[in-house]
Amino acid sequence: MDGHQQLTVDVVQSRLRRFDLRQDGRLSAMFPSNQYPHIRRCATLVPLFFTPHDHELHVLLTQRAATLRTHASSVAFPGGVQDPDDEDDTHTALREAHEEIGLQPSDVTVVALLPPTFVRPLSAVYPVVGFIPADFQPVPNPHEVARVFSVPLRLFVEAEVAFLPFSVEGLEFRSPVLIYPVQPDWQARIWGMTCSTCMLVARAVYGSRAGPGLLTSSDHPGPEDEEDVFRNAQTAYHALCQATRPHSRL
């Protein structure tokens, strides 16, 4: 992959195409909608934009409100549970982004729908990657969002990322963690599904960098390219969904 090619919305979309559930029938067949009835279907928006002054690709993130019942104060994408009236995952992601940060759905150019990630306790989260206006001014819903900030996407292939172990139903995995100084008095702790998704998108856009894998049970992972990273994430998703089935026995 030519990492020096000028990035545009079209270039990013083309680099994500082979991981887009809407574009690849074989990939979408791996995630049938009724495969895991006990898992809630959710969607998040992965909001990308180019900064006007240097054309650097950024991803917009939120810090969830401290009063929320789940994942309080965590760094996350805008998103939530699919409503019965939602047409599809894109509808869910755009609706939630409007509710949480005031982003108009008509201002988003969707470029990919990525495979789902398992999020505890029992959710399948489908990331919808979309471009937003560079001059977008967030209006956070204080009941859901404490703050909104952005991070250069390139950091997710170039910066130091730690990996923390976690277990679900006896299965051992490692979750990536990236610390990013947003303000002098606050550092964002980007981890879990949010960090994993940023790493996946960054590797697809920028190409591989030598470093550990994304989410794996291996104690000594080696360098991986973006294909391996996506494959590992898919394997982890199915393993976790199967392990949390009622009375499941692997």
From TrEMBL:
Check the record and name the SUPFAM superfamilies matching this protein.
Nudix
Does the keyword field hold Metal-binding?
Answer: yes
Q: Name one GO biological process term.
A: coenzyme A catabolic process
The record places domain Nudix hydrolase at 39-173
Q: Which UniProt keywords apply?
A: Hydrolase, Magnesium, Manganese, Metal-binding
Residue stretches in coiled coil: none
InterPro entries noted in UniProt: CoAse, NUDIX_hydrolase-like_dom_sf, NUDIX_hydrolase_dom
- A Pfam family that the UniProt record links to this protein: NUDIX
Question: Could you cite one Gene Ontology molecular function of this protein?
Answer: coenzyme A diphosphatase activity
Name listed for the protein in its UniProt record: Nudix hydrolase domain-containing protein
Name its species.
Answer: Pomacea canaliculata
